[in-house]
Amino acid sequence: MKKVFIDGSEGTTGLRIFERFQVRDDIELLKIDSDKRKDPEEIKKFINASDITFLCLPDAAAREAVELCDNPDTVILDTSTAHRTAPGWAYGFPELSADHREAIKTGKRIAVPGCYASGFIGLAYPLVKGGILPADYPVSVFAVSGYSGGGKKLIARYEEEGRDAALDSARMYAWGQAHKHLKEMKAVTGIEREPLFCPMTTNYHSGMIVQLPLYTDLLAQKKTPEEIRDYLAEYYKGEKFIKVMPFGADVEAGGEIFSDACAGWDGMEIFVTGNEERVVVASRFDNLGKGASGAAIQCMNIVMGCDEAKGLSL
């Protein structure tokens, strides 16, 4: 029985983690009084009394919470952006490599990936590692997410009575190319420049698609879409959270792929389509699942040594 504390349990990610723990019989959830959830001394007490603490906080608050931990045995899983490229922190995407999984298993500080970053890194990391995507490739990323990815304030904008009618259409944002996920997208994959990133949210709650378009003549190894698909299928062979779809799955679906189809599911689907000149590699998943809470719980399961999918939907 592990003692688990969620610092920030009233936010979107924290609530989703809390909900999934209601059916777990192998953890004791430490619950802070709601009127003390911002009291540093009370938070410190709970963090240090826990075996595992989840930080579901803004970046500055997450950094402050880490400083409160003086129990050398407490494992901290941070879902914020604060530590995703920080030295000494394991990056919580175990499917990337055996080294990533081992670092999560043995680490005391684990950074849970961002949602858009997960979708991109799940595609680009294997291609870079396999010598297919060169590090100097001019990467562009196009992505769409449900509005829950924007947190409580954006959810409130979409769900309030008499909301702005403009929100019925796609909401394009991050025009200044300073999105908070760009740093980890570059650092974790090893590409030389941050991608040109064009995200949007639309009028549904959760689920997302991240697209990586590629010119085959600019790749380090020119490959057909079928060959890229087969390479990724082999790379993720045996990984229960990653499902590389058969080539042509998009055609069989009528040429239409819907971004909310994986809502409520904790895995990630990967599609490869295109032709011999231009290829699109895409990931589809739940921004609150493999893109947030689901990934955090998967990491916790690895730390605990139990089935990675325990308590999750696959």
Describe the structure using short key phrases.
alpha/beta, six-stranded parallel sheet, 21% strand
Q: What form results from the Cα inertia axes?
A: globular
Mean pLDDT: 95
Question: What spatial order of strands do you see in the largest sheet?
Answer: 8-9-7-10-13-12-11
Quaternary status: single chain
The helical percent reads: 25-40%
Question: Which structural category fits the helices and strands?
Answer: alpha/beta
**E-strand count:** 13
Tell me the major beta sheet: 7 strands, mixed
Question: What's the helix-strand series?
Answer: EHEHEHEEHEHEHEHEEHEHEEH
The poorly predicted ranges are none
Q: How much β-strand is present in the residues?
A: 15-25%
Radius of gyration: 19 Å
Gap from first CA to last CA:
24 Å
Number of helices: 10
Describe this structure in words.
With 314 residues, the protein is an alpha/beta fold. Helices cover 32% and strands 21% of the residues. The protein has helices at residues 12-20, 40-49, 59-67, 98-106, 115-129, 151-159, 182-189, 225-235, 249-252, 289-304, and strands spanning 2-7, 27-30, 52-55, 75-78, 90-91, 109-111, 140-146, 171-172, 196-202, 208-215, 242-244, 268-274, 278-285. The protein has a 7-stranded mixed sheet. Helix 4 packs across helix 10 and helix 5 (115-129) runs parallel beside helix 7 (182-189). It is globular and about 60 Å long. The relative contact order is 0.15.
